[in-house]
Amino acid sequence: HEFLAFASSRFKRIVIRDTLPIQGDFVVALVSTVAYLGLEARSVEVQCQVAPGLPAFAVVGLPDKAVGESRQRVSAALTAMGLALPPKRITVNLSPADLPKEGSHYDLPIALALLSAMGIVDTEQMADFVAVGELALDGRVIPSPGVLLAALHASESEKGLICPAAQGSEAGWVSGGANGMPVVAAPDLISLLNHLKGNQVLPPPAPGQVDPPKRGPDLKQVKGQETARRALEIAAAGAHNLLMVGPPGAGKSLLASCLPGILPELTPAEALEVSMVSSVAGMLENGRISRARPYRAPHHSASIAALTGGGLRVRPGEVSMAHLGVLFLDELPEFQRQALDSLRQPLETGEVTVARANAHVTYPARVQLIAAMNPCRCGHLGDPALACSRAPKCAADYQSKVSGPLLDRIDLHVEVDPVRAADLALPPPADGSKEVAARVARARQIQTARLDGTPLRTNADLDGDLLEQHATPDEAGRTLLLQAAEAMRLSARGYTRILRVARTIADLAGARNIGRIHVAEALSYRRQAPRA
What one-character-per-residue DSSP string does 471-511 give? Predict the structure, then answer.
């Protein structure tokens, strides 16, 4: 009450007058579009005002350079249609004005809002659509990233979608063809106007094709690496992280490339998640969705932004492009240490947040990390004929480039021995990718049934009460684990990951409970992480 009394006395001389009418006619038209923040599409209202004044064309509402340049593209596209901008003051506002606007997909909604203000397009008709797309100078509507996200947003808003014809199949996955959400896939601006006026009918696009899964090399090509093959099978069955250490030519890269061939296919829901990341990155070609799990192998010169996302225009990094798939880091110590350490949080939480001064963007990053490294820089530590004179200091310096906290997040550590010529002369092993994939699929089915009704997918996600409920070993296994944890000085994270791996080994064996033998094998793949 005291504040209200003070405010009344302070501002009692303010007089509120009626708003004065603006001299001359002006028109305001509205068109809906979206802004992308990670995998979230937020509503943006394109407001276009054509009012008396000196001829001008301004775009406001925190546009980036690509959005600001849409004035030239829209003007050129209208000129190609034989239309001229009205000799008035044109103001385009992208609301909400405090939300940063990035990308070229604002071209089409700006053009439609301007055409609505000019009386060429029905304003009420545009209220039923969300529009995205880039304009070429000759009036063509060309692709822009994120159409799948825009289609999902339009469907949730109970509106239709106007998008480029080349990305109609991408939006078709949400519309379901002619019976679902209306999708207008326009090849150019003239065809779109004729469709909206009823002079032409643009057929509804069909969903894109489902690509067959791409399989890598067969595991039968791997000879003489039984321990590594077993570790790879365990990693595939439980989605565990794996580190392979061995000399050059031992087959580490070959083993990693065999992993996609033994992983189960993506479920429809998982395929949609992966496709959303590809769509916002502009890598979903012709609306083709794949059921194969992503496999990304960036070069060791990759920067932090390349691995985790970011850049001048925030885009998902390799760890997000590999969501629900495999991220293979070959020559692990050759990566920048800061770039590797930036993966700590994504490996733990399954998502990565790119922080900027004006926005925080979050991308999914539930990946299976497969890493390979040499024991030292020359790669021949332990071979008296080839090792350098600086051993073992050479190996200590080389391996110390990978921090202890990162190694602690890797479930399986395997020493890959060099392959002898006698091993290469042996016949292929009996179990190839097909046989191993069948065992992995059975183990995954056990996990799916066990975790039904929870947000978790695999044993690698077990934590808290679910870990205690499903991954508690029997008395003999618990005793062995406690003794090993004390001797190996395992961290709490390392202790938890041992239980997860033991649960996967038991699932592969078809065992209901975790026994001593399962814990012993899980411990054999673990080594003490060095201090950071």
Answer: S-B-HHHHHHHHHHHHHHT--HHHHHHHHHHHHHHHHHHT-
Rounded to whole angstroms, the Cα distance separating 50 from 430 reads 75
- Is 294 within 8 Å of 321 (Cβ atoms)? yes
| Whole-Å CA distances, 65 to 286, 362, 364, 370, 527 | 27, 23, 27, 39, 51
Quick one: average pLDDT of 499-504?
A: 96
Distance CA 222, CA 226 (A): 9
Residue 92 neighbours by CB distance under 10 Å: 26
Judged by DSSP in three states, 90 sits in: strand
- Bridge partners (DSSP) of residue 415 are 245
Percent of the chain that is helix, strand, coil (3-state, to 5)? 40, 20, 40
Measured in Å, how far apart are the chain's first and last C-alpha atoms? 59
Paired residues of 30 in beta bridges: 47
Question: What secondary structure letter does DSSP report for 202?
Answer: P
Q: How confident is the model at residue 336 (pLDDT cuts 50, 70, 90)?
A: very high
Give the pLDDT mean for 143-157.
Answer: 93
Coil vs helix vs strand at 317: coil
Model pLDDT for residues 192-220, shown as the tens digit of each residue:
999 999 999 999 988 887 877 777 899 99
Residue type, 430: A
- The pair phi, psi for residue 390, each rounded to 5°, is -90, 0
pTM tops 0.85, yes or no: yes
Q: Is the dihedral of CA 461, 462, 464, 466 positive or negative?
A: positive
Structure tokens at 331: 């020559």
Number of Cβ within a 10 Å radius of residue 161:
27
Q: Is the pLDDT of residue 311 over 50?
A: yes
One DSSP character per residue, 281-300 reads TT--GGG-EE-SPPEE---T
Q: Which token pair is 458?
A: 């695999």
Radius of gyration from C-alpha coordinates of the chain: 29
Least confident of 55-64, 315-324, 420-429, 493-502: 420-429
Give the pLDDT band (50/70/90) at residue 190.
Answer: very high
Query: Which H/E stretch holds residue 361?
Result: strand 360-364
CA distances from 393 to 243, 365, 389 (A): 21, 36, 9
CA 434 remoteness from chain centre: 28
Residue 353 identity (one-letter amino acid): T
Distance CA 493, CA 529 (A): 11
Whole-Å CA distances, 156 to 161, 219, 281? 11, 44, 22
